[in-house]
Known about the structure:
By secondary structure, the chain is α/β, with parallel strands linked by helices. It has helices at about 1-50, 85-90, 105-110, 125-130, 145-150, 170-190, 195-215, 245-250, 270-275, 300-305, 315-320, 335-350, and strands spanning about 55-60, 65-70, 75-80, 95, 115, 135-140, 155-160, 220-225, 230-235, 250-255, 265-270, 280-285, 325. The protein has 12 helices and 13 strands.
Amino acid sequence: MGKFKLTIIMAIFVLVLAACGTSNGASSEPEANEPEAAETETTETSGETEESTEPTTVEVTDAHGTVTVPVNPKNVVALDNRTFETLADWGIELAAVPKEIMLADSPYVTDENVQDIGNHREPNLEILAAADPELVIVGQRFSGYYEDIKKLVPNAAVINLDIDVSEEASEPGENLVNGFKETTITLGQIFDKNEEAEQLVTELEQAIETAKSAYNGTDTIMSVIVSGGDIGFSAPQTGRVWGPLYDIFGWAPALEVDGTSTDHQGDEISVEAIAQSNPDWIFVLDRDAPISGLEEEEKVPAQDVIDNSPALQNTTAVSEGQIVYAPMDIYLNESVQTFIELFENIANSLAE
């Protein structure tokens, strides 16, 4: 009997030990998983930290200095004709724009939810204030309202992206190119479209180099603006659209006139003066084409004016078909995309 009891006691003792071993093994599994849990938690925490460190504002330099601007701002008002196509291509929503000086088919013009501030001569700035914008983009025709707008929306960031190609500018060509680059990069920073902005700058630089290479360095250029059936002179350096390009591409002007201006219709010039200068090329801007406020009967296509001018028919440019027309929308849509298109058109024409 003693041996039997001892055997039972020993069996019980073995079972107890086995149970303890199983218990300890089970509790050890979570301990083995703890580093994985800690690693996951660290990753999640790291992710949250990365999100929280993304910048909510960016400092940009405009025509007046340094301005702190919210990244991806809400209720944006844009007033600069050089920005509309870029912002539209990037899918940026706008609260208000000056529809009267924009292309009729602009997505901002056709969208009834986008408020119309009117034109730069009689803008409805009350609409701008009612939009309660975080950002207002000023420039070109609206540059003169910069201070008024700052007072009107004191809580908004107001930036003036105007490019200095004025009559007083010493290097209008360089200013135009650098202005396009800076404006595009600035918009990319504000709306988190840095890659898209860099791509546009690259395309601009490529278009400039191609157009430079296509010019032989000796052909003479006459640049004009056609408005209301009349031909105006777009002078080297100062002329609308064409003026700064003489600097950029090193064009030889067919005619130089003192006292020229940046007038939107060009300076007065006689057709006979153009014919006498006998340009190798004529570059033409049709001012009326994109303006929706003009009656159709008021618009005389620039090509008709050139083709129907007897005095010009014997010039080298007309007789050899060496005429380049700027994109039809360029008077109102002076975006970097439009100028890239213009430079490509010039390069293709000169290379033929």
